UniProtKB/TrEMBL annotation, chain A:
<keyword id="KW-0411">Iron-sulfur</keyword>
<keyword id="KW-0472">Membrane</keyword>
<keyword id="KW-0408">Iron</keyword>
<keyword id="KW-0004">4Fe-4S</keyword>
<feature type="transmembrane region" description="Helical">
    <location>
        <begin position="301"/>
        <end position="321"/>
    </location>
</feature>
<feature type="domain" description="4Fe-4S ferredoxin-type">
    <location>
        <begin position="26"/>
        <end position="56"/>
    </location>
</feature>
<keyword id="KW-0479">Metal-binding</keyword>
<keyword id="KW-0677">Repeat</keyword>
<dbReference type="InterPro" id="IPR017900">
    <property type="entry name" value="4Fe4S_Fe_S_CS"/>
</dbReference>
From TrEMBL, chain B:
<keyword id="KW-0560">Oxidoreductase</keyword>
<dbReference type="InterPro" id="IPR006963">
    <property type="entry name" value="Mopterin_OxRdtase_4Fe-4S_dom"/>
</dbReference>
<dbReference type="Pfam" id="PF00384">
    <property type="entry name" value="Molybdopterin"/>
</dbReference>
<dbReference type="Pfam" id="PF04879">
    <property type="entry name" value="Molybdop_Fe4S4"/>
</dbReference>
<keyword id="KW-0004">4Fe-4S</keyword>
<feature type="compositionally biased region" description="Basic and acidic residues">
    <location>
        <begin position="346"/>
        <end position="356"/>
    </location>
</feature>
<dbReference type="Pfam" id="PF01568">
    <property type="entry name" value="Molydop_binding"/>
</dbReference>
<comment type="similarity">
    <text>Belongs to the prokaryotic molybdopterin-containing oxidoreductase family.</text>
</comment>
<dbReference type="InterPro" id="IPR006657">
    <property type="entry name" value="MoPterin_dinucl-bd_dom"/>
</dbReference>
Amino acid sequence: MPTNQFSGPDPHVAASAGHRDAPPRYGFFTDTSVCIGCKACEVACKEWNAIPEDGLELTGMSFDNTGRLGADSWRHVAFVEQRKPLVGPPPDESHRGVDALAAAAQGVTVPEQGGWPAPLVPEQPGRGGDGGSAGDTDLRWLMASDVCKHCTHAACLDVCPTGSLFRTEFGTVVVQEDICNGCGYCVPACPYGVIDQRPDDGRAWKCTLCYDRVGVGMEPACAKACPTDSIQFGELDELRERAAARVEQLHGDGVGSARLYGHDPEDGVGGDGAFFLLLDEPEVYGLPPDPVVTTRDLPRMWAHVGVAAATMLGGLAAMFVGRRS
Amino acid sequence: MATPRWLDWPVFRQLTGPDRLGRGAAAVSRETESLRPRVATADKVSKSICPYCAVGCGQNVYVQDGRVTHIEGDPDSPVSRGRLCPKGSASLQLTTGSSRRHEVLYRRPYGTEWEPLDLETAMDMVAERVIRTRRENWQEEVDGSRTRRTLGIASLGGATLDNEENYLIKKLFTALGIVQVENQARVCHSSTVAGLGTSFGRGGGTTYLQDLQHSDCIIIEGSNFAEAHPVGFQWVMEAKARGATVIHVDPRFSRTSALADLYVPIRAGTDIAFLGGIINHVLSTGKYFHDYVVNYTNAAMLVHEDFQDTEDLDGLFGGFDREDGTYDVDSWQYEGVRVASAAGKRSVDEPRHPGRDMQSSGHPESHGFGGPALHGEPLRDETLQHPRCVFQVLRRHYARYTPEMVEQVCGIPREKFLRVCEEITSNSGRDRTTAFAYAVGWTQHSVGAQYIRAASILQLLLGNIGRPGGGILALRGHASIQGSSDIPTLFDLLPGYIPMPHAHLHEDLNHFISSDAADKGYWANMRAYVVSLLKAWWGPAATEENDYCFDYLPRLTGGHSTYDTVMAQRDGICRGYFLLGENPAVGSANSRMQRLGMANLDWLVVRDFSLIESATWWQDGPEIETGELRSTEIGTEVFFFPAAAHIEKSGSFTNTNRLLQWKHQAKEPDGEARSDMWFIYHLGRRIRERLAGSTEPMDRPILDLTWDYPLEGTLGDPNAEAVLAEINGWDAEGRPLSGYDDIRDDGSTSCGCWIYCGVYQDGVNQAARRRPHREQNWTGSEWGWAWPQNRRTLYSRASADPEGRPWSERKALVWWDEEAGRWTGHDSIDFIADRPPSYRPAPEARGVEAISGVDPFIMQADGKGWLYTPAGLVDGPLPTHYEPQESPFPNLLYPQQRNPVRLANSREDNRYQPSGDEPGAEVYPYVVTTYRLTEHFTAGGMTRWQPYLAELQPEFFCEVSPELAEERGLEHHGWATIVTARNAIEARVVVTDRMTPLFVQGRTVHQIGMPYHWGPNGYTTGDSANELSSITLDPNAHIQEVKAWTADIRPGRRPRGAALRRYVEDYRRRAGVTETTGTEA
Ligand code: SF4
Ligand code: SF4
């Protein structure tokens, strides 16, 4: 058992949370390279969990009208339109610091390289650069289904004063709505901006990794529905192996931009229970590049809980990447 | 929130347990502890099939305490493997949500509000209206020929209904003399039936979704596969994972393109030029599959010496009659053969020239199961050198379709075009196969059938038909639209693609059979299929002496398609209208004309889940807003009947794989909602009761009709299995038939749809079989039942060489087992199972005996795949590029601009725009195409009311390129007005690189994309794209051209009120639109 229960790798996350004879840790591997952007995951999740509809707003951000994860959207499919070919070497780092979603909202496309923003209208008709003919497009339309990461070190859970948020025997992180009192501490604690309160009574809601379904041996609703198996559910160790093999395969096929996100137990949250294969930098999808569990320093602060909590909450707001209101 | 008790308090437990931080075991709440998912507590799981698209995904329906509590994918299904797209996933909201209506509503003539009406009274009123309207509009004869029909009543809808419901609709309405029976298949895939049917002998896709996994290359063209058939797309991804190349050719970069290896933008409406270019490439580089082509296609047949090609006549074929705008097809035929032609011309004593009325009676669709008949033996040249052999004719015809021409016509850069050619040809042959997948992007054109023909020619040349990973997949878009074509709620067909009889040609049964039956192949048994159908419908009343009641069938005299019906409504001929799960005020071309037609009716019956646009136009439709119509002046009486959902009735759907899958009823519908089976059955019962004792000859067919079905449940639904058993048929002793070989022509058998014969073999509902896919091979032959005879790959004899060996080990499917004296393999062969490859028929052989051991296309009159159609289509034996009815460009390939025999009908409410070089064409400068989104379904009746789907695509929008946005000053996320000679609409603007300007004929052309799902009703609302489209029809199948037309686009919202019509008029004036614009041949 690790000495620090707030950061670093933890291969037995359920056992660390007191579950005796816990089953293996379960999670999601979302392979965005095969996502068709159908949003079945969003709907299946809503149907299963009876989540309220989230408003009829045409966002103007490509085909994404969900916008972000929230109390009433536990899956969110991001759409990113890019002028770059699917097959190619790893992209350079030119997207660092670019808010792709905000850019999409302005109707512009993430540029292949260089400065920002891309001109809305290129100088020449057609974009292929082969002179005479338009119609030679090199476009990439990235689609990625985002979800709660079920972190190895989940700050939401660490700051929950009521014990509503808890670690299940499957290693997942779940809100117990019969306990949540709507204090909202968990909301700024999450380094991914996942958990959110409903306006009615303030209780916090997020993906449960279908705790009830998994409990009877079924896979979560989103993974079950996903037509192309972009969302894969399973034992985390096995998923990590599968994901590594998939990246290798894509690299072999010339898709040099493929990389994993959230798979690494050494990362700032001790690795995610839900991790991803991406085709570009995380920011392009609205994901924080280097998430860090916001409660890493909690043990030191333990003695001064009151002060620390206030400090922490203030400081955490600055760490929000990819979360927009 | 429960108040925690002390012992439950996490802090207490964390202090006393191993979870000292209180983040896990110690924190478990009471609710968490007792958590049981509703899938685990359900009383029963009922097996069903998704009601949206034709992928036909399996669904498990969970029922608890008489309520449906959950619906999710059925993991056993070989088609879907448990997955569902967003629509399928929203089935629970669709079926149990608050948007569904459960009461009958009534709008009295000139009324301004709905009124409640009880179901029984409403049924009686409708029965009374049917009887009255029928009587008042009866046509015993037309021009001296017996017609025995009424044009006073029409019905539309069926593709969302069960096969058994379609069967009863067609049966009842035909017995009533109603010929205008139509469904979504007309507007979606009727040209598929004509195109595939004349090429291969059957009008269904030649392959099935799961087999795509074996493709080495998949060309998706004319289809937004990933969005419109998402779960079927898993098989494309499966192929991709195995290394296949996926190519998407489309006017817009869609979610399908995003997953393709190569995206090829194309100008909408130019696919024949593109495919013709590939055909030319294949022929001129010698990359065709020689042995396949010589043995299995009609390449070697000699064409009649009188034949004149478009090369000789500036884009026309020989035989064109400029006066009535039709072809005399005689000269297109083979040397030495008489061909039963499309237009009904069957023997020498018939009129030499079919003329427009017969041409328009839709005969080409009857080749959905059996190509045109031939009489005689065509001459052949196996060397393919004879200048008049099909192969050489083909070569000459396509010689001008060069890469340069493709670039100029389609806007596809030469290199990209050649890369497609390279991929297709290097992935075809003995060892490799390429598949084509298409949908309504190909069918919905004024040359729609010929689009499909072009792909058929290419696939035959490359040897890709009948082989694993090959074929042409027609992606169908409604749960049972294949079924509503097979058991047709279509005006021109009887069940099993038997043509509806024509007044002037088919006076009696003998005449009918002799004009359509073939000498060779299964269609030679046509008499047996017709007689057995008549026995199914009229039972003991059908005897040999009375021609088995052949006279009871109403007769056609021309086109009675849904678009002809709209005009008949405008003209006051059609007085009563049933809408059975179809929403023409949004989904059909020229929506405004659809509504104006309905405003001219005496009565209208709408059966649906919610108050769709076709039900409420009299109250709040767009014409009320513009002041063109006033509720108090509209005399149409409207009945709204709430419909049962798919889980509330038993019955079968036929999916895009030609696969029948049974749905079991999970619960009865609530309130006054009823199945269409219930509605049709009890309507028929009431009509028969009222007419009982009538001595009028016109009432005999309805009184003699077999109309006894066991009723079940508390609502008295007819038993759907009993209907399926009737469709399957039985012998004189009442034993179920086991296949169409059992059908007899002597009146001893009865069969409601011969191509479905076998679905109730041994008295077992074969469509209800559900052996999990993990327990069988990829064909899934023990899941459901596919026509014909449960075969999955059609024409699979062609997967083996002439000697009966697979062309290669890698592509083995079926092969001849010499020892066993039978064909064997992975699939049930689509051939005569014990006919050796060496078999050659005697010269006098007829029927099935005449099929040789090397004739894979057993429904074709010559056993071959048709590169060239000597008969069967009315607009030419070879696909030829014509520009759409409305195009910004002249036809670069020929002086002939448009399909000369297209059906264009210029009327005040259906005006056409100038094209090409004509003055005024620049007023409507942009190309428009329409499409589906994953999140919505067709005219929106099953998605715009569902909050979970509405929120995902909450507004109607148009997609434009940044370049077009700049040219017209359109702002992303702002509004635009789009206008044609028909109407003007507004849409939110999406500026995206996914729309590409194309460089065509020396200039840049812009395309506008618009999903067609929206209308003014529902939870998400918006203008309807079909307000803009015109009624221009393919002459073979009467399908409308809505995938390519022209328009103008301007920033800002459209005018309101009376100003809207003035705006449209002003555009017409500026473009010089008159009643003759766009009508020349
Ligand atoms: S993750 Fe799967 S279900 Fe979700 S949008 Fe992508 S393909 Fe569809
Ligand atoms: S709409 Fe089509 S793809 Fe989607 S779940 Fe239903 S049948 Fe499957």
